[in-house]
Amino acid sequence: MFRIFIITSFIFFSLKTYAIDKYGDIIERYNIEDVEYIVTQEATYQEVLKIDPITKERISIIRVFGFGRFAKECEMIEEKPIIFAGVKEYYFAGGWPDPTYITMFDIEGNKLGISPDWEYAEQFCKFY
Questions:
Q1: Does the predicted model carry a pTM greater than 0.90?
Q2: Exposed (0-12), middle (13-18) or buried (19+): which is 79, by Cβ within 10 Å?
Q3: How much of the chain is helix, strand and coil, in % rounded to 5?
Q4: Which of 74, 100, 84 is nearest to 30 (CA)?
Q5: Residue 10, pLDDT above cutoff 70
Q6: Average pLDDT, whole number, for the chain?
Q7: What is the rounded CA–CA span in Å between residue 18 and residue 110?
Q8: 58 against 6, higher pLDDT
Q9: Within 13 Å, how many C-alpha atoms sit on residue 7's CB side?
Q10: Helices marked H in 24-126 — which ranges?
């Protein structure tokens, strides 16, 4: 009986650890236009995931140094919603500069532009 308990416990905790390693820790959830998005903290980056409403599958949109916010809309940009995040750029021979601006992405993960800071972005965008 004790052996069955040990084996069952091992399997349970192995599966639980695997799920955490696979998806990271969820740090934020958003429901935008009836679609769920989650932001996870991985070991060295944050990831924005879209949850498929039918299959509940997690679909990766972008991996960034630091997630910022979702914007409902921004002047002069057609895409909605917009993801704001800090991106860590790397030099070709190694090393990186500190991120000095905020990068904007569409919901497919395509880069739309940059903003020097939040004060600038708030002049032109409406945030959730």
A1: no
A2: middle
A3: 25, 45, 35
A4: 84
A5: no
A6: 85
A7: 30
A8: 58
A9: 4
A10: 118-124
